[in-house]
Amino acid sequence: MIIAVNARFLLKDYLEGYGNFIFETCGRLAKKHPEHQFLYIFDRAFDPTIITAGNITPVIIGPEARHPILWQYWYNYKLPALVRKYKADVLLSPDGFCSLRTRIPQCLVIHDLAFLHHPAFIKKSHLRYYKKNTPLFASKAASIATVSEFSKNDLIQQYAIPASKINVVYNGIASAFQPFNWADKESIKSNYTAGKEYFLYIGAIHPRKNLMNLLKAFSLFKKRQKSNMQLLIAGRLAWDYEQFSESLKTYKYRQDVQLLGYLPQDQLASITAAAYALVYPSFFEGFGVPIVEAMQSGVPVITSNTSSMPEIAGSAALLADPHSISDLAEQMMRIFKDESLRNELIQKGFEQSNKFSWDKTADLLWESILQAVETKK
Questions:
Q1: Predicted confidence band of residue 240 (pLDDT cuts 50, 70, 90)
Q2: Is 324 left (phi over 0), alpha (psi -120 to 50) or beta?
Q3: What is the pLDDT of residues 131-143, one digit of tens each?
Q4: DSSP 3-state assignment of 343?
Q5: What is the DSSP secondary-structure string of 127-183?
Q6: Burial of 332 per CB tally in 10 Å (0-12, 13-18, 19+)
Q7: DSSP string of 24-91, one letter each residue
Q8: 177 within 8 A of 272, measured Cβ to Cβ
Q9: Residue 317 and residue 331: Cα distance in Å, rounded?
């Protein structure tokens, strides 16, 4: 069998979200199923280290698909021609887009429908494309994989997709995220905060991630606790980040906030392991990977009580209303003042994080791929 994989997001130095999902799952599947061939389809030059098994064949077809007009062209004209040429049996597309002009069965991964719930947080041109095409993609796909029960139910409610067509595969967590010993944590804090404790946020700087309310909640925490606690923010500048950047310039506690930018995984794992707590106040997530990364690292978590986050966090995190600055600040104060609560969350976090692994994700994704292939038979 030849499995074609849409690898547009498989960019070595930016393995976020979709790219990381492809790298972790398809790399495992290729090694686990050497009797099958995997065709990685790129729209630009790729790093050879991305190809992790002998039965993976990389192919580049341009142009680089970076906006709606080129998405339309790449998925509906270039991609069908390529999968016909290589006689692929199935196409796996992990970025929520699929081809409307190919006859081979497609397994589509839709991580979430954030654009429907928060349309203001996306470019208008992209929003129009998503609204028009996502229901067509969902209908065209032979099978759909998604990363939480929340997202599965959302797909059913929004597009009336049969539940039998949708498979929950969750996300996995990299093994690099592990607890550090006391000495290593002190060394990390010494490097980043001159030895001070810190709250940590990991993710893109984007309006949907709710960083403005995080800053306001951190202000309230600082005023009430008179603490030297720091706030570290690790993530790339994403769409419409300017308001956050401008606000930070005049922020009262600017000296206690550090923007670290995009970090490679090893650095991200180290600053996670040394954090006092992760604060992840996003308005909407299909999964929320940093939640489980922190838990696996022995770090307590504060996250939002919306979308998939209560499902992913289980009983191992403090939940807050992301729209309420006082609620976010209250949870930060609770975890700061109550050491027994903090230790309880750490232990529960280890148990919760054990539910997620890339091996499990890959196996469940394989079942979804086979389900798509069966529709052709």
A1: low
A2: beta
A3: 999 999 999 999 9
A4: helix
A5: HHHHHHHHHHHHHH-SEEEES-HHHHHHHHHHH---GGGEEE------TT-----HH
A6: buried
A7: HHHHHHHHH-TTSEEEEEESS---GGG--STTEEEEE-SS---SHHHHHHIIIIIHHHHHHHTT-SEE
A8: yes
A9: 10
Which phi and psi angles does 201 have, rounded to 5°?
Answer: -120, 135
Rounded distance, CA 276 to CA 298, Å? 10
Task: Walk me through the domains of the chain, giving residue ranges and CATH numbers.
Answer: 2-172+358-376 (3.40.50.2000), 182-353 (3.40.50.2000)
- Does the pLDDT at position 376 exceed 80? no
pTM value is: 0.94
pLDDT, tens digit, 9 for 90 and up, residues 18-64:
989 999 999 999 999 999 999 999 999 999 999 999 999 999 999 99
| Distance separating alpha carbons of residues 247 and 232, to the nearest angstrom | 16
Confidence category of residue 239, pLDDT binned at 50, 70, 90: low
Whose CA is closest to 24, among 270, 298, 364, 374? 364
